[in-house]
Write a structure and sequence with these properties.
The complex is a heterodimer of chains A (about 450) and B (about 475). Chain A is built from 13 helices and 14 strands. Chain A is an alpha/beta fold. Chain A has a seven-stranded mixed sheet with strand order 2-8-7-6-5-3-4, sandwiched between helices. In chain B, helix 2 crosses helix 9 and helix 5 crosses helix 6. Chain B is globular, with a radius of gyration of 25 Å. The chains are: A alpha/beta (about 450), B alpha/beta (about 475).
């Protein structure tokens, strides 16, 4: 086998050095009743050729982008990924390294993460970002656990317009803790209903997503004002579409205290939902409460600039059960991908791409309205919005290989026949026109 | 033959925002084929403080950065407990197939049959390899796998109407274990390992009481030793109403040799980025599937991939489930790579384990005359030395680790596990050849001679790297986390 370099001669020479006479004797420390008796019942090893053939077959059971016309978003977005991203990611010095425990031979990873932290903080309007979390959902859960640690309170309010899967993950993380979760309803404009906050006192945090699950841009500034009437309560702003901040005001500018969400849109393939990129950022005064890895700038023994992992005393391997989180490995390579993407787009490009997302979605929206399809919520949107389709239309479109977004009734029983549609810079006018035409027929 | 570095061409490279020029764009932007719109001014941002770079700027920047890194493809990376084995290139090809990489996670199931079958088959393979029949591949990393397992234990006790408050964690367990248990509200109770480096049944019996939910046991443990009494310990924990969690990060030592179910384990996690060759990526993404007994199966995270009469589908209707841990189905791209690895090796995974253990024991035997070996017993996939023999020379574990970088090797894991003072934890993995191991052994021996003849070579190491030792104290005292 090509990954196993040992010849028979190597093996016997090594066994001699060890002083045992067989491979089996090497495992003498494993008690007999712990042993496995049957051989591994796995398929015979495939040659690379056979493997390619089989994987091609499996992969072809999913339509690639050219084979269907999809308007799915809902937390996983089809965007253009420049070739430089996979090309640079596949540099195996990045790819096959681990967590930079030896900074002298990991400066590439460390500087890249430092750049990631910086660009993330700038994109989100915050002062400090960590080296990443698993995905948008775990980032939200960790942000809210952080808010509970910071405020020493044990109740949070969470908008029902946050991605339903994120809220499910939040419940999983919170279940054994006894912390209380209050859900905030949304109104006819698709925004979280601010008037419903009144009753809840002593909140550690209020969490909103913007653009929210319905694609609607929340009025974060008004929320910040209201939430901060209790000076201890933190406003946690989540997001599932990081690209929106190429165009929209950053959550930091609107007054958020912790910003968390999904960075998949920044150069990371959708890959059936993972790996993705949990982004997490906050104010400088809260930086020691952040979970996860942090890279800091320093100097070497000759005063040359360099980077190291820092503030490790927050982390599990030092502080054990009192750590800010149990996270160890993060999403290093995805953070690198997003850094390459943000560097490639720059300020100018990111703004243009974000604007184009808005334009495409607005075009889709106006064409559908023209075709008599009602938009469900009146609030402003970025690249996603909700419409109500005629009975049976979704299924009919699917038969023509048009995926007309995500049906929402599974998540919100009141939203019958509603679908969440997404158009990005890679959605063509032709695809939009096809959808609109087919909806009418 | 030494492969240590020569003065090669390594470039300095400024920070991203110190290069480029405003107005440059390194991205091909799709055509504007729809009318331009203007969102309300109160919604839009005025400025975004990003540098503008061209494609060449970006390519050179990250290429130069990459050259400052050491990876498995550069050389031997014997980082203990991290299983830095070779990451096969064919796995990358498979994960990049458009049908996988472009698949939206919420496609109608009829359009996602290949991905679902892959996840299902991978679960079956992992069940076969561990001996534990029920599997979820959703956890996104080892630590999230630990959390999943702990949540399952928590929910199991809850379902039986008797929640517990404590969990036993041996001092030779992985560092993440206490934090994972704490997230479930359990107070970790440390259990000391006995003189021979393994857990003794009596020590567990002394602390395993009515209030204890179970034990989190790393096997092989972080000393690289197989927990020889694990079955008796498991029986005891079960008798007293607890469950047994096994941290399976070191599964590379057990494949085809040990049936985890025979150990009395109820639930465990695996690290696809260790045992199953998916790349470590400079710190993730990983993947931490969880495997368990039929009794704990109802508690596995949802959604679960199930096989119907004619197709695969995602099922969330498990009322006792701990719930969801990931926005979608975990790190699918890593699952593809691990699946590709298992298909490439099949039953040869047993050979992987044999060679991993052979390599570790070969290093242990070849260095134990010059480095102190606190537990001189046959090891599994890794061996742990320390710097006791070098004390008089005023040379520490850190000095030796840094000097290894000059000799062209990545350093082992150092100062872990905590039970060994000044620990040097070496895990060669099976993909290193005998010649490479011999070069490594030679390098360590040379360094130990240098320690006697010219210890400053060690104190001032590394000298051949892009930067020398960095001031970590200053970094933590006045953190500069953002440029």
């Amino acid at each position: 086998m090509r990954y196993l370099p040992h010849t028979e001669q190597d093996i016997s020479a090594m066994l001699d050095v060890i002083g045992v006479d067989s491979m089996d004797a090497l495992f003498g420390m494993v008690p007999a009743d712990n042993r496995r008796t049957a051989p591994l019942a796995l398929p015979e090893p495939m040659t690379e050729w056979e493997l390619n053939d089989w994987m091609d077959q499996l992969a072809s059971r999913q339509p690639s982008r050219s084979e269907i016309c999809s308007f799915l978003g809902a937390g996983s977005y089809a965007h253009h990924i420049p070739s430089v991203v996979p090309a640079l990611l596949s540099r195996s010095e990045f790819f096959t390294a681990y967590t930079p425990y030896q900074p002298e031979v990991s400066q590439g990873t460390l500087q890249a993460i430092y750049e990631y932290q910086t660009l993330t903080a700038r994109l989100l309007g915050m002062e400090v970002a960590n080296a990443s979390m698993y995905d948008g959902a775990s980032s939200l859960a960790e942000a809210l656990l952080m808010a509970i640690r910071v405020t020493k309170r044990n109740k949070i309010a969470v908008s029902k317009a946050i991605h339903p899967h994120y809220r499910e993950v939040l419940r999983t993380y919170f279940d054994p803790t006894g912390f209380e979760i209050v859900e905030l309803p949304f109104g006819e404009d698709g925004r979280t209903d601010l008037s419903q906050l009144g009753e809840s006192a002593d909140l550690a945090a209020v969490a909103l997503q913007s653009p929210n699950f319905f694609g609607v841009i929340e009025d974060l500034s008004s929320w910040a004002e209201t939430v901060h009437q209790d000076p201890k309560t933190l406003l946690v702003a989540a997001f599932s579409e990081a690209l929106a901040f190429g165009l929209l005001k950053s959550p930091g500018e609107c007054g958020a205290d912790i910003v968390c969400g999904e960075g998949q849109s920044l150069g990371i393939p959708q890959s059936f939902g993972g790996p993705a990129l949990g982004m997490l950022a906050t104010r400088a005064k809260l930086q020691r409460n952040l979970p996860g890895r942090l890279v800091g700038r320093t100097v070497d023994s000759q005063e040359r600039p360099g980077f190291v992992l820092t503030l490790a005393t927050r982390e599990q391997h030092i502080r054990r059960e009192k750590a800010t989180s149990n996270i160890c490995t993060n999403q290093g390579l995805c953070a690198l991908a997003s850094t390459i993407y943000m560097a490639s787009s720059g300020k100018t490009g990111l703004k243009q791409v974000a604007q184009l997302n808005h334009d495409k979605a607005e075009y889709l929206k106006s064409q559908l309205i023209g075709a008599g399809i009602p938009v469900r919520f009146s609030g402003p949107t970025f690249n996603e919005f909700v419409v109500t389709l005629p009975d049976g239309a979704y299924q009919k479109l699917l038969e023509q290989k048009i995926v007309a977004g995500l049906p929402l009734e599974t998540f919100y029983s009141e939203l019958k026949n509603a679908v969440l549609l997404c158009a990005t810079e890679v959605t063509t006018r032709e695809q939009i026109d096809t959808l609109v035409k087919e909806v009418q027929s | 033959m030494s492969r240590a570095g020569t003065p090669g061409l390594v470039f300095n490279e400024p920070l991203l925002w110190d290069i480029g020029s405003e107005g440059r764009v390194g991205l091909s932007i799709p055509r504007q084929d729809v009318p331009h719109t203007t969102p309300s001014g109160e919604l839009t941002r005025e400025d975004l403080d990003f540098p503008d770079l061209g494609e060449v700027d970006v390519v050179r920047h990250f290429t130069r950065l990459s050259q400052w890194n050491f990876g498995v493809d550069t050389g031997m990376y014997p980082l203990g407990s991290c299983t830095m084995k070779y990451n096969p290139k064919t796995n990358e090809r498979q994960a990049a197939l458009p049908g996988f990489s472009q698949a939206h996670p919420m496609l109608p199931e009829s359009m996602a049959q290949g991905a679902l079958q892959l996840m299902y088959d991978l679960q079956e393979f992992l069940a076969e390899i561990t001996g534990l029949p029920a599997v979820s591949v959703q956890p996104a990393a080892g630590a999230q796998g630990e959390l999943t397992g702990m949540l399952m234990i928590h929910h199991w006790h809850q379902a039986r109407g008797r929640q517990k408050s404590k969990i036993l964690i041996p001092d030779t367990a992985h560092g993440t274990n206490p934090a994972s248990a704490a997230l479930c509200g359990y107070t970790p109770v440390p259990v000391p390992s006995a003189d021979h480096g393994m857990l003794a049944v009596d020590d567990v019996a002394a602390v395993m009481d009515e209030e204890t939910a179970g034990i989190m046991i790393t096997n092989p443990n972080t000393l690289g030793l197989f927990e020889e009494h694990i079955r008796e310990i498991a029986d005891l924990v079960h008798e007293r109403g607890g469950l047994v969690y096994m941290d399976g990060a070191n599964m590379n030592a057990l494949m085809g040799m040990v049936d985890v179910r025979n150990l009395g384990v109820d639930v465990m996690h695996l690290n696809l980025h260790k045992t199953f060759s998916t790349p470590h990526g400079g710190g993730g993404p990983g993947s931490g599937p969880v495997c368990c007994t039929p009794e704990l199966e109802p508690f596995l995270p949802v959604p679960r991939v199930v096989k119907g009469a004619e197709s695969f589908h995602l099922e969330s209707n498990y009322p006792e489930s701990i719930g969801r841990l990931h926005a979608f189905y975990g790190n699918f791209g890593m699952q593809v790579r691990a699946y590709s690895y298992i298909l490439s090796l099949g039953p040869l995974l047993k050979k992987v384990t044999e060679l991993a253990v052979l390599n570790a024991n070969y290093i242990k035997e070849s260095l134990k005359d010059v480095l102190h070996l606190p537990y001189d017993r046959p090891c599994m996939h890794e061996c742990v030395f320390n710097d006791e023999k070098q004390k008089d020379l005023k040379v520490t574990t850190l000095d030796m680790a840094k000097r290894l970088l000059d000799h062209g090797f990545h350093a082992p894991t150092v100062y872990f596990p905590l039970v060994v003072q000044g620990a040097i934890m070496i895990e060669p993995t099976e993909t290193e050849s005998k010649e490479t191991l011999d070069q490594f052994i030679e390098a360590v021996r040379t360094i130990l001679q240098e320690a006697e003849t010219n210890p400053d070579l060690l104190h001032e190491a590394p000298r051949r790297t892009k930067v020398s030792r960095l001031d970590e104290t200053a970094a933590a005292r006045k953190p500069c986390l953002c440029g």
